[in-house]
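FAQ

Q: What does a record look like?
A: Structure on top, sequence underneath. For example:
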């Protein structure tokens, strides 16, 4: 009767691999796995080495063929799940997978995204990918699911909250507590422009000027607008109130924070 250990490593394959090898060094050989558990039996300490391989891009048939290939080398192979999912009758679309592996189903390749590969310790590093070309291709395989997930999350956030949410969290958008009517603008890394029929409230944004001079153009057709600029140390380097149709040049030395305070202002601003 083996001893069970409950662990789950999500997508951290190297951490899982290191843990299995640590267990082997303590005299524990892996014999079975479940969704979130591993079962071991006693063995001679350090007798076995383990490698964790991602095969989530492969079809069920291709994964089986790869397992047979590894077993021909004398390795022992166990399948393992990458995610925690106990549903029955599951079908998952994997756009990043290879042909034949894009649809994963329960009973097929779903919840069999990893291979836990065992060999007897011969004192040599346990590496399943040895050539430069093979290593590069495997790294691409590992990156594809992460890239797809990140892009999907960004698209969902964009649809749900708009481009302003993404821009703010990526560090180059304005922070707004203002009412904007008919607003058309551009919020770039080194510039900020806006044109509108009415702006009322406060907006703040970080700007990273490309030169040591920041140029400001303001057009006022109604209402009032004030602009304050602070340097990276919080020092106020520009502070103008009730600006009409005017232009300014402000000497800067790196990133600045611009705050605009408007009271039913009609017109535009261009800071670049």
């Amino acid at each position: 009767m083996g001893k069970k250990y409950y662990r789950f490593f999500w997508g951290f394959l190297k951490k899982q691999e290191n843990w299995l090898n640590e267990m082997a060094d303590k005299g524990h050989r892996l014999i079975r796995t479940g969704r979130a558990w591993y079962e071991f039996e006693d063995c001679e300490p350090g007798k076995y080495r383990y490698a964790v391989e991602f095969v989530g891009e492969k079809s069920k048939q291709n994964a089986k063929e790869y397992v047979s290939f590894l077993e021909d080398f004398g390795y022992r192979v166990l399948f393992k799940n990458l995610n925690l999912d106990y549903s029955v009758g599951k079908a998952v679309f994997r756009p990043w997978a290879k042909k034949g592996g894009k649809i994963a189903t329960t009973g097929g390749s779903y919840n069999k995204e990893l291979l836990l590969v065992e060999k007897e310790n011969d004192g040599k590093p346990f590496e399943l990918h040895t050539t430069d070309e093979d290593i590069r291709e495997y790294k691409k395989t590992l990156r594809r699911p992460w890239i797809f997930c990140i892009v999907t999350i960004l698209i969902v956030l964009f649809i749900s909250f708009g481009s302003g949410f993404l821009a703010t969290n990526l560090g180059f958008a304005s922070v707004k507590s203002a009412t904007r009517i008919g607003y058309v603008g551009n919020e770039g890394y080194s510039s900020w422009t806006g044109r509108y029929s009415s702006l009322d409230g406060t907006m703040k944004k970080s700007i990273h000027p490309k030169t040591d001079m920041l140029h400001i153009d303001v057009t006022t057709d109604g209402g009032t607008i004030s602009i304050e600029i602070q340097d990276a140390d919080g020092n106020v380097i520009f502070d103008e109130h009730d600006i009409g149709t005017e232009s300014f040049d402000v000497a800067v030395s790196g990133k600045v924070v611009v705050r605009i305070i408007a009271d039913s202002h009609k017109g535009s601003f261009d800071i670049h």
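Q: Is there anything notable about this one?
A: The CA atoms of residues 82 and 113 lie 6 Å apart.
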